[in-house]
Design a protein that fits this description.
The structure holds two protein chains of two kinds. Chain A is of the alpha/beta class. Chain A has a single domain, classed as P-loop containing nucleotide triphosphate hydrolases (Rossmann fold, 3-Layer(aba) Sandwich). Chain A has a six-stranded mixed sheet with strand order 5-6-7-3-8-9, with helices on both faces. In chain A, strands 2-1-4 form a three-stranded antiparallel sheet, covered by helices on one side. In chain A, helix 2 runs parallel beside helix 4 and helix 3 packs across helix 4. The longest helix of chain A has 18 residues. Chain A is globular, with a radius of gyration of 18 Å. The relative contact order of chain A is 0.17. Chain B has one domain: Orthogonal Bundle (MetI-like fold). Chain B is mainly α. Classes of the chains: A alpha/beta, B mainly alpha. Chains A and B meet through helix 2 of A and helix 7 and helix 8 of B.
Chain lengths: 248, 259
Amino acid sequence: MNDTLFLDQVQMRFDDGTTALDGLSLDFPAGSFTALVGPSGCGKSTALRLLAGLLTASSGSVTRPTRDQIGFVFQDPTLLAWKSAYDNIALPLKIAGHARADIDRRVSQVLDLVGLAGRGTALPRELSGGMKMRVSLARALASQPRLLLLDEPFAALDELTRLRLDDDLLRIWQQNKCTVVFVTHSISESAYLGERVAVLTDGGHLAHIENVPAPATREDFRSSPEFHQAMGNIAAALGHDLSARGGT
Amino acid sequence: MMLRYFLPALIGVVTLGIWEIWVVLAHIPPFVLPAPRAIFAALLANADTLFSALWMTLYITAMAFFWAVISGVALAVIFTRARMIEMAFYPYVVTLQVTPVVAIAPLILIWVGFDNVDRALILIAWIVAFFPMLTNTVQGLRATETGLHELMTLARARWWQRLIYLELPAAFPSILTGAKISGGLALIGAVVAEFVAGSGTSTGLAWRIIEAGNRLEIATMFAALLLLSLLGIFIFYALSFVEWLALRRWHESFQSKST
């Protein structure tokens, strides 16, 4: 139950000859929150899909829990437009063969958790972008996963909604204590969320691992020197000098 | 909003009026162009035969449409699951589609229609109606979002769960588009089939048109034509209504109207 998950010397070559990952090794201790940050096309989504079992590595090994212990949140909400929020969340449970009462209990629990209590009957088109993402998050959480994988989930949302969802995600993680791997291309989001930030550069090369000190309070974290130090280190690993531009 | 109904109705009434007056004033013989009142009279006088013919054509059309939907969706499901089967059979499906049905009809009548004309008529109309069902359903099944497919993979959905929960509902708008085309084509197919069958045993509207034409009962011919048009309109609006019922709550094409 408390096993660390590994990517060990993982190579990923696609049929068209492109190499997304070239010998990436990375471990994810149980209960940890790891942010994967890097430019577009650096292979961070590929690493996530390997962990999810959506892709199979060309070589190297991946340890991961069984499928029913993995929750995955896509870049888009990926909801069934013809199903209510409730039914969307219930679908994976229904496919897995859970009993009706159990599904009921779990769905209302996660709706509560993501702050959508009472909105279960709404269709996706009746929900805002942020709420759709909350439904998507709730769906991933409903199976009570040991491993929660998120692929740039809030990238398409407006800044305020994104900050709010970042905080909600942290709260949920602190309650559930599942292992979280969060892919993002935002340096500040990675430094804010991750206990550890793994910096990937082109070709899936692991450039740096930044251990972000746990903040005393979340409220002031973004203005703390630790946060800016972490951001600076991450940016430097990506080949940018934040201080030279007066910080961002 | 009322203009939507009022304007076409006005055009209809004015056209009928001009038609009636013109026929009377210009002394056009009824076997060339009967007046609207004469057509209406012919409709009433031949109500028995015309409405049983209407019923017959509706039956052929409905059966052909029903089988077109069933076979089109079923074949689309098979094609999208087994690429090899699609590769093997698709050219023949296209061949069936591009060969003019009027040219195949006599053959079908000889093979199938010998002891059961209805079955031959349904088969001919089916050939006409089937193809848009297949292509639209295939296109709808293929267009399902990759992310949703990955979601089903993660949920470890079996192939039939993927089909029932994701692909068929996602393809439903395309299937209904296919059905709207197919419904109209089934009627055309039924009429073509009746024309080709052209015997006393088939008693559909198309046959009534030929028969009335042979007897120079042009008013009756127009009456049958009118019923045929009404049938086509009915099929189109019935299917549009089904589409509206099924999609109005969630599909993009209905959202501007409902919100």
